[in-house]
Each structure stands twice: as C-alpha cells, then as structure tokens.
Design goal:
- It is built from 14 helices and five strands.
- Strands 1-3-2-4-5 form a five-stranded parallel beta sheet.
- Helix 1 crosses helix 14, helix 5 packs across helix 6 and helix 5 packs across helix 8.
- InterPro entries: Aminoacid_DH-like_N_sf (IPR046346), Malic_N_dom (IPR012301), Malic_N_dom_sf (IPR037062), Malic_OxRdtase (IPR001891).
C-alpha cells in the first residue's frame, strides 16, 4: 500500500504526516469543528423516549417481555403485553433455540436482522454470548448471500443511502439520520463486496454487519454507529435486470462525477459530525480505494481494512 500511496501524494504518505495533523491519533481541528455536534440545532419538533405502543416498536428501548410490572405501569404498557415477565436470559434461550432450528444460514441471518430491528439490546446480548456461533451468521460468510439477495429480503431500511440523486444536498441527507453523536461510519460503494464483485446498493449488508461487530466485540454504542451506502450505479447486469433491485438502475458513475460525489460526502461528514468521526472505507474497488485513502488520509480520520 505504501508504495502505491506515495506517488499519489507526490511522495508523502500517511506515515509522513505533519505532526500538526495528528493529535492523539486524530487530525488537526482545522475548521474548529470538534464541537460541531454539541451546539447543533435540532429539528422543530421535540423527540422524547416513547411510551406505550410506540415504545414496543422502538428497537433502542424495547425490552419485550422483560419489562417489569413496575415498568409496564410507568410506561403505559399494561395490556399491551402478555402478563408474564420474562428475563432477558430466558428470552435469549428461546431465541437461540429458534435460530438453531433453521437449517438455512440465510434464514438465521434474517431472524437476527428482525431481532435487531425490534429489540436492539437482546440482539447484542445474543451476539455477545454466542459470538462463535452467530458471527458467521451476521457477517461472513452468510452476509455475502444476504447482499446478493438484499432486494428480495429487504424489509426495513438499515443505515443511510446516499445516491447520485442526492448530489448537492448530502449534508441535508446526513441530517435526516436521527442520531447526532456519530463516532464511527462504515461506508461502501458496493463495487467489490467480499469475493462477490459489484453488488451496487445491495452492499449495505456489509456496513450493517461490520458495525454490529464493532458494538458486540468493541463496545461502541449502537447509536454512535452509522452504516452508509454510496450508490453510484452498478455494472452488474443481473441486478440491473432484477425487478427487486433496490438501487439506481444505471451503469456506475466514474471519473469526475464519482469523485465529486465522494468529496461532497466527505466534506458533509466532517461538517455534520466534526473532525473526530472515524470513516472506514469498506469494500471499494482497489482503483478507488487507494485514491480515496491517499486523498483524505491527511484531512479526515479514515482507514480501509481491505488495503491497509
């Protein structure tokens, strides 16, 4: 990687950075944006923790049958749940039993994704306690098949989708994400998903799965993680002709059109989340991966585990 990056930077590599650009492993706060998220304006409406029926459909706070009788009284849940109070441990035991009954790995993947969408705490409890068994389900190799069939199994959007249609307003799109204190972004353009090639917009399964591991194994708060797919089209004819494909139906943008979109994205990320947000480039084709790492390695906190 080093020999490739040096020519791109006229001899300077990520290992030759000016000390002013590296403070405690980060980058210099050139634009005074470290406080970008602290005084950020909020939307005109007020958001508070849901109660009652809405609470049961909020994956971040829903505990299902684990709500105690006191909690059910306090949060207007009486009558909305069966009378039994089930511990998280018992819920975990039941769900692992159900997951193990599936014979097809993709069915196990879909069961885990459904759980993540309705009970986030229980999802991570399962993943942490059964990591050797479930890691191949939520990530490789099963996530590869999930990405190939993402359009067919798509139920609820996970992460943020930024396409060529959003050019010129990417900052506005980022502000649509409900969480403000983002620490880690995993972004892909879907061109080189695992060993499967160009899967376009359906590569979203990779950032979602990788960030789930960062929470389960690295302790990063789920609310601080943001999976993003940059959709610039796909050269996969099979997907372009698939009626269930969820991305742009056009050939991949290249050259100036591609890099202008990525530059707007990188600038918007820093403006919205500050200098310290970590951006991981994931499953980009090598011809773009090296270029992006060289271009933004001295201005943003970035890395690419495929080539570094």
């Amino acid at each position: 990687m080093e020999t490739t990056l040096k020519p791109l930077r006229d001899g300077e590599s990520v290992l030759d950075l000016n000390p002013r650009s590296t403070v405690s492993g980060g980058v210099e706060d050139v634009y005074g944006e470290d406080r970008a998220t602290e005084d950020q304006l909020v939307t005109p409406w007020t958001f508070s923790v849901a109660s009652g029926y809405s609470l049961l459909r909020d994956p971040q706070y829903n505990k299902g049958l684990a709500f105690t009788e006191k909690e059910r009284d306090a949060h207007y849940l009486c009558g909305l749940l069966p009378p039994t109070v089930s511990t998280q441990q018992l819920q975990e035991k039941k769900l692992m039993k159900n997951i193990r009954e599936y014979q097809v790995p993709l069915q196990k993947y879909m069961a885990m994704m459904d759980l993540q969408e309705r009970n986030e705490r229980l999802f991570y409890k399962l993943l942490i306690d059964n990591v050797e068994e479930l890691l191949p389900v939520v990530y490789t190799p099963t996530v590869g098949e999930a990405c190939q069939k993402y359009g067919s199994i798509f139920r609820r959007p996970q992460g943020l989708y930024i396409s060529l249609k959003e050019k010129g307003k990417i900052l506005e799109v980022l502000k649509n994400w409900p969480e403000r204190s983002i620490q880690v972004i995993v972004v892909t353009d879907g061109e080189r998903i695992l060993g499967l090639g160009d899967l376009g917009c359906q590569g979203m399964g990779i950032p979602v799965g990788k960030l789930a591991l960062y929470t389960a194994l690295g302790g990063v708060r789920p609310s601080a993680c943001l999976p993003i797919t940059i959709d610039v089209g796909t050269n996969n004819e099979k997907l372009l002709n698939d009626e269930f494909y969820i991305g742009l139906r056009q050939k991949r943008a290249t050259g100036k059109e591609y890099y202008d979109l990525l530059h707007e994205f990188m600038c918007a990320v820093k403006q919205n989340y500050g200098e310290k947000v970590l951006v991981q480039f994931e499953d980009f084709a090598n011809h773009n991966a090296f270029e992006l790492l060289a271009k933004y390695g001295t201005t943003h906190l970035v890395f690419n585990d495929d080539i570094q």
